[in-house]
Design brief:
The protein is α/β, with parallel strands linked by helices. Strand 9 and strand 10 form a beta hairpin. Keywords: ATP-binding, DNA damage, DNA repair, DNA-binding, Hydrolase, Metal-binding, Nucleotide-binding, Stress response, Zinc, Zinc-finger. InterPro entries: AAA+_ATPase, DNA_repair_RadA, P-loop_NTPase, RecA_ATP-bd, Ribosomal_Su5_D2-typ_SF, Ribsml_uS5_D2-typ_fold_subgr, Rubredoxin_2. Belongs to the RecA family. RadA subfamily.
């Protein structure tokens, strides 16, 4: 046998020299949703975000760890032996904010407050910080958008000066962490998370990588020290929170600060809350002297005029679990245009168009040649279907130039067939209306028991829109 044939490897087995380990292919990851791809693309194939795909510099393709890398700091305990007193919420001193948070701030909780520019986020958090400082807690307020002098002027204007309130104007994450080591505060406020940057991460402040790094570092400090942290977040053009979507998943509470630029009313809603409900709404009044919580905001949305005028009707909407009385005003005038105007303020234009079509078809109200203007009092925003009946009655009252019953409140959804559909929380809405002095309630038939009517209020149950128009227009009404 030749020597060459003896050194030849068996058939079907590759030579040892050909067993070459392939280098791992580079991976690219979307900073918004985490979608991965083998090559770079300008637009994410999952969330369709532009410019969010970058090379993943982390360890790719590594096998999952199956053993602990470090010993546990505290042993696992039975769930019944866990001390819950340390996790109790502590009030902030602002009752409306405590309502949204679920009782106050939980030690170690990270709260993200986002809103449009100029809506009052910094003013609210500075007031919260001052109240905590007056209560004996040490508060560190970090501002990255304004100078220390500007914050001091705002604090003087809203009377938020206190020796326990410490102020630092910083934009570097390492410096902020150094202030935390030096001050050891009981509450940390960062305004805002998009202005803080880390030198260990590439990118401009506010970028996806920077926001993720800053938020992760602050959350780690909050959990390690049981330190409540309040973060201010920017929003994009469409109103969503700027930065990676993972920011909302990392924090414990996400609150949206809403308000019209031309109104003093501000609303705070919790879109995520690990420690309380997400259906509560806090109402605030923003003025030059500060921001004040409104425990009874219904008076802002109801006209104080006692005389009856055509085209007005009051309904009660539910903002979360809070009932708010809102007055809907309508004006109907002859039109000289081929396409009459349909103008709304605070009311959904599509809902108005549907209600007008039902009135024309089912009730016989001639509106095809009339301009219709509908607005709410106080800048309130009415979007739920429970206001359909009040919208229809106000329009008919303005069209006929006949005022509705004195002290009437209308609740119900209007269907395309002209029927009045039940809505949720009728008893709670009627209780709020009775507290404000309303004596007549027009409600869908079967939505509430007659014996459950609030004291001093007469219920008028209706099944369709034509019946509701007859009942609410004066002495022809009959109690249920």
């Amino acid at each position: 046998m030749p020597a060459s044939s003896a050194a030849r490897p068996p058939a079907g087995r590759p030579p040892a020299a050909r067993r070459v380990e392939r280098a791992p292919r580079p991976a690219f990851r979307c900073g918004e949703c985490g979608w991965t791809t083998a090559k770079w693309v300008g637009r994410c194939g999952e969330c369709q975000a532009w410019g969010s795909v970058a090379e993943d510099t982390g360890p790719g393709g590594a096998a999952p760890r199956t053993t602990a890398t470090s010993p546990a700091r505290t042993p696992a305990q039975p769930i019944g032996d866990i001390d819950v007193e340390a996790a109790r919420a502590r009030p902030t001193g602002v009752g409306e904010l405590d309502r949204v948070l679920g009782g106050g701030l939980v030690p170690g909780a990270v709260v993200l407050l986002a809103g449009e520019p100029g809506v009052g986020k910094s003013t609210l958090l500075l007031d919260v910080a001052a109240r905590a400082a007056r209560g004996g807690r040490r508060v560190l307020y970090v501002t990255g958008e304004e100078s220390a002098g500007q914050v001091r002027l705002r604090a003087e204007r809203i009377r938020a000066l206190d020796p326990n309130l410490l102020l630092a104007a910083e934009t570097d994450l390492g410096t902020v962490l150094g202030h935390l080591e030096q001050v050891e505060p009981d509450l940390l406020v960062v305004d805002s998370v998009q202005t803080i940057a880390s030198t260990l991460v590439d990118g401009a402040p506010g970028g996806v990588a920077q926001v993720r790094e800053v938020a992760a570092a602050l959350i780690a400090v909050a959990k390690d020290r049981d330190l409540p942290v309040l973060l201010v977040g920017h929003v994009t053009k469409d109103g969503s929170i700027a930065g990676p979507r993972t920011l909302e998943h990392l924090v414990d509470v996400v609150c949206q600060f809403e308000g019209d630029r031309h109104s003093r009313l501000r609303l705070v809603r919790a879109t995520k809350n690990r420690y309380g409900p997400t259906d509560e709404v806090g109402c605030f009044d923003l003025s030059e002297t500060g921001i004040v919580g409104l425990t009874d905001p219904s008076g802002l949305f109801v006209s104080h005029a006692l005389h009856h005028v055509p085209g007005t009707c009051v309904t009660v909407t539910l903002e979360g679990r809070r009932p708010l009385a809102t007055e809907v005003q309508a004006l109907v005038a002859p039109s000289v245009l081929s396409n009459p105007r349909r103008t709304t303020s605070g009311v959904d234009s599509s809902r108005l168009a549907m209600v007008l079509a039902v009135l024309q078809r089912r009730v016989g109200a001639r509106l095809v040649d009339q301009d219709v203007y509908v607005s709410t009092v106080g800048g309130a925003r009415v979007v739920e279907p429970a206001a359909d009946l009040a919208l229809a009655l106000a329009t008919v009252s303005a069209r006929e130039n006949v005022p509705l019953l004195a002290g009437v409140v209308a609740l119900g959804e209007v269907g395309l067939a002209g029927e009045i559909r039940p809505v949720a929380g009728v008893a709670r809405r009627l209780s709020e209306a009775a507290r404000l002095g309303f004596t007549h309630g027009v409600v869908p038939r079967g939505s509430v028991e007659p014996t459950a009517a609030p004291a001093g209020m007469t219920l008028h149950e209706v099944g369709d829109l034509a019946e509701a128009v007859l009942l609410s227009s004066g002495p022809r009404s009959r109690p249920a």
